[in-house]
Design a protein that fits this description.
Elements: E1 3-7, H1 11-23, E2 27-31, H2 34-44, E3 48-52, H3 60-69, E4 78-83, H4 87-95, E5 100-104, H5 108-139, H6 150-167, E6 171-178, H7 181-188, H8 190-207, E7 213-216, E8 221-227, H9 231-247, E9 250-252, E10 255-257, E11 261-268, H10 276-292, E12 298-300
Parallel strand pairs: 1-2, 1-3, 3-4, 4-5, 11-12
Antiparallel strand pairs: 6-8, 6-11, 7-8, 9-10
Helix pairs in contact: 2-3, 7-8, 8-9
The chain binds magnesium ion.
Magnesium ion (MG) binds next to loops.
């Protein structure tokens, strides 16, 4: 089943095609000339267009060219409708981007078969496009936690930093990791470790705003980009996350597991921060300070 636009100046031809295709359950729109055909293609978004070649004012070739030039219509498959005598026209239509042609008077079985095959090809094409979008999305994500991955974090941050610099906006980076995670893994095993990492990711998502970016930075390391966020606000956010993690209980096979995190915060603008790498480096230094000062705490880069 598809939505089919028939563009033909002959009411009779359009009627015959419409009757044949309606019987098969397709939805039909008819346009009587090239201009109306172009408008209907844009507004109705048909799955396929049956396009007559010989029409007054704007012929099928010209319509075909306009359809292919417009981003909103260029992907719609076009089947040219030619008469037996117009052998050269078939080639010309195909050269202009039509996918196929049918000759009139219509052979019903052939018309149906050609329309169906192009509808099927279009479905397959759309499925592939959708799959590509999914793959693209997955390529930016960490498989375990669903947060963005290290590579995407750096790509994004370097762009965000340039924008913050140009428009003189606040931009904060938070790096944090789980305290004594190696010991935790040694005690409970890596599978339990993974459960804790996933649970932590969901706490992170609750603690951050939708506009913030959260990433898994490495094994048990995570990173946040906080937009339009100055130092005190970033500290506050980090502290809120720290307390949420501290009080969060992970249930696993009758065990109640708790972890704590140490966090380092750095904020642009700062006289010593000139690029995104320095922003991350200084957040990392602050994280080390949090570790040195006893863990389960937030430190802010500021010297
Ligand atoms: Mg005609």
């Amino acid at each position: 089943m598809g939505k089919i636009l028939i563009v033909d100046d002959s009411r009779l031809i359009a009627h015959v095609a419409k009757t044949m295709l309606t019987k098969r359950g397709h939805e039909i729109i008819v346009a009587q000339d090239g201009k109306a055909g172009l408008e209907a293609a844009k507004s109705e978004k048909p799955d396929i267009i049956l396009l007559d070649v010989i029409m007054p004012i704007m012929d099928g070739y010209e319509v075909c060219e306009h359809l292919k030039e417009d981003d909103s219509t260029k992907e719609i498959p076009i089947i040219m409708v030619t008469s037996q005598a117009e052998a050269a026209d078939k080639v010309k239509g195909l050269e202009l981007g039509a996918l196929d042609y049918v000759t009139k008077p219509f052979d019903e079985a052939e018309l149906i078969a050609r329309v169906n095959i192009h509808l099927r090809l279009r479905e397959l094409y759309e499925a592939v496009q959708e799959q590509n979008r999914q793959l693209q999305k997955m390529a930016n994500r960490d498989g375990l936690t669903g947060l963005y991955n290290h590579r995407y974090f750096h790509e994004q941050l370097s762009q965000d930093f340039l924008r913050a610099k140009r428009y003189n906006e606040n931009l904060s980076c938070v790096l944090f990791d789980i305290d004594f995670f190696k010991k935790f893994n040694d005690t409970y095993g890596h599978q339990t470790g993974d459960i804790v990492l996933k649970a932590l990711a969901s706490v992170v998502q609750r603690a951050t705003r939708e506009s913030d970016l959260s990433a898994r930075y490495g094994g048990e390391e995570f990173a946040l980009i906080l937009y339009h966020t100055d130092g005190p606000a970033a500290y506050e956010m980090a502290e809120r996350l720290r307390t949420m993690v501290e009080s969060h209980e992970v249930q696993d096979n009758g065990n109640v597991l708790r972890v704590t995190i140490s966090l380092g915060v750095a904020t642009f603008p700062h006289e010593r921060i000139h690029d995104s790498k320095e922003l991350v480096d200084f957040a990392d230094q602050a994280l080390y300070k949090a570790k040195d000062n006893g863990r389960n705490r937030v430190e802010v880069f500021d010297d």
